[in-house]
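Shift notes (night). Ran Glycosyltransferase while the centrifuge was going.
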Amino acid sequence: MGLVVGVRRLRVLLSRVVRWAGENPGGPFALAFMALLLMAAVALARGSEDLANRLAEYAYYSLVAAVVLELASTLLSREGGEEEDGG
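Came back to this:
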């Protein structure tokens, strides 16, 4: 029974993550940025400077992708929505 409950909870969690990712296009890239940066810190602490540098570089690219996607999403939603009052 415990395994079945665990699988159900995992499915619910995954469905929430997929729904969130659909609403926030840059979100998964921002999460990847944080995970990659954390892995880079661990690699650096373990003495793998080359690996840490590569991971930090990939983290940077992921952050750039997140910002670009969020910016595009914001601009597209403003074009399709109502105009804001200027004051």
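The CA atoms of residues 29 and 64 lie 9 Å apart. The chain has a mean pLDDT of 87.
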